Amino acid sequence: MPIEFKERRLPNGIRIAAEIDHDAATAAAGFFVKTGARDEAGALMGVSHYLEHMMFKGTDELSADQINQGFDDLGARNNAYTSGEMTCFYAHVLPEHIGEATDLLSKMMRPALRQDDFDTEKGVILEEIAMYKDNPFWVLYEQAMERHYAGHPLGHRVLGTDKTIEAMQRDAMLDYFGERYSADNTVVSLAGRLDFDAACDRIESLCGRWDATAPTRDNTPPRTSGDRFEIREDKVARAYLIWVAPAPSATDPRRFAAALASQALGAPDNSRLHWALIEPGIAEEAQSAFDAHDGCGELYCYASGEPARAGQIVETVEEEVAALASRVRKDDLDRLRSRAVTRATVSGERPGDRMQRLGRQLTLTGEYLPLERELEMLDSVTLDDVRAVLDEFPIAGATRGVLLPA
User: Dmax of the chain from CA atoms?
Assistant: First the structure.
């Protein structure tokens, strides 16, 4: 039986959507809120991620232990995450438990936000920030994004900084929650074997009185810098390098060509950077990726190796970037397309993955694009399309950063 798409919008604005598969062995639900680091004021950087933690600390009726025990009793695979674009809370369960899992998610979406929980969790967030400071890639990536977006909130750090977290007040978080965690800023995504009408009725019974606040987001493509910078750290012994360049947005049809171009340049194996840097032993890591956002996107390259070879790595990457449009071949695209189709098809067999894809898609773009149509669009990308997107979004002149030993 084919996948069946259904959706309903509640009177207060909550959008509920599902990809129903009556032959699936599991079901999944996720609450997606269109708020993330890019929606934060500078002084509140990190509040979205901090708030994600607070959602698990309990409601006025349920303690943190009761929420955790509730998911455990259902045998759920549940978690949450925050990005620059959105925050998601989800659970993947057997079909007979999807109603109870959705109930738990609905309830935890209205947390108590108690002062003592806020104070305790602040220490946890600061420890997490400290942990990421020990990750050389993360140190370089955060610095590169801040410089690339030149003061725009897209350069905000998802975790925030020591300064913003230490200064954050519970009442400021409560105000942010009231404004952004509204009914008309929430998508509920469902997938797998489930009764859609029953699920909608349960969600409406618990969430139907949520307020609508008409939150907004400026998705005008921001100015980017093309900056060059160098960081020196006592903690590192290798050289780490990153390039960040503008790329198509999550709604731009050229995103499929950009994704294939990034893979042709720096897929983990059998790519231009792999053969130019990894196989000759010039670098230990070399890859590229494409990330599409609301209104814009970026393509980034990353490499690491011996500090003495940093200059050679830079020259090699920039040579490959400059020559990519002329060197990429049709058989490269055919191979990369086959890989992408296989990954997407395998993922499409899992309700948890389908729920994530559907929720992210509707939150980011507002439009439903069936997986089959997405694969058709990917399959239709030509060599000329890839060359055109590389010409329209040149990687040369990207923001470039280097992290080296002190």
Answer: 63
